[in-house]
Structures are given as C-alpha cells and as structure tokens.
Write a structure and sequence with these properties.
Oligomer: single chain
Radius of gyration: 28 Å
Largest sheet: none
Number of strands: 0
Shape: elongated
Number of helices: 5
Length: 150
Amino acid sequence: MNTGSDEPGEVAVVPDRAGTGEGPADDGLGSRAPEFVKQRRALHLSWQVGVFVIGLAVVVAGIVMLPLPGPGWVVIFGGMAIWATEFVWAQLVLRWTKRKVTEAAQKALDPKVRRRNITLTVIGLVIIGVLAGIYLWKFGVVAPWRIKDQ
C-alpha cells in the first residue's frame, strides 16, 4: 500500500476537515443557485435543466460562429461559464482551460519563443513575397473581369 512516504511503517493520515470550513466543500465548486432554489428538489432540478439549456444554446451558437464571422471561442467559453454556475464538471473544465491558457500565455512571452516566432514569420513572409514576385513576373497583373472576348 502506498502511503505517500518513503519511510517503512509510516501511515498517511488524512485530517478530518468536517465543519472547519476547509476542504472540498469550500473550494468554490458546486451549485451557485439561490438558497430557496436549493432547498426544493424539484425547483433545483428545473433550475439545473434551465441552466443547461441556456448554456447549451450559447455553446451551440459559439460552435456555429467558428466557421462564420463572430467570436466563436469567446461565446463557447461564455456558455461553459454559464454551465459552471451550476455544474461541477464545467467548473473543473473551466479551471483546466484557464490554467492552460495562462501557461500558454507565459510560454508565448518567453524571449526565446518570441524570437523563434518572429523569425518563422519573417521567413514565411519572404517566401510568400518571392512566390508572388515569380507569379507576377511570369503572368503579370491580369484582372479576371477584363479578359478579352475570344
């Protein structure tokens, strides 16, 4: 049995945090519905269904906006935030996403990564410029709507 210790014979003991205001119950997870809603099971269930449907509508709208004009990802995360007001799984997904975005932002601010990104961007722009120059040299500038009738 792994007790979390390298010493033989030691036993890991988990302190009882019941009623102390610490622990999983107070880590910000769970329903944020008003107390009068939480007290009535049927009302709380309908509240959860309503939150789920509204969040689903917002997420679907964000998914539709991905290929169309609009802030798709922002709307999707907005729908996740709506779900996170009521569902623990959405709160955990939102926390994980925030952590990953923060890590990516910190990584992008690293001077080595920034230099590499700038170098790759310049190389890409030079390649595109050379290809555009070759095309223009070979074919010239001909607008498709001014093609001579044959």
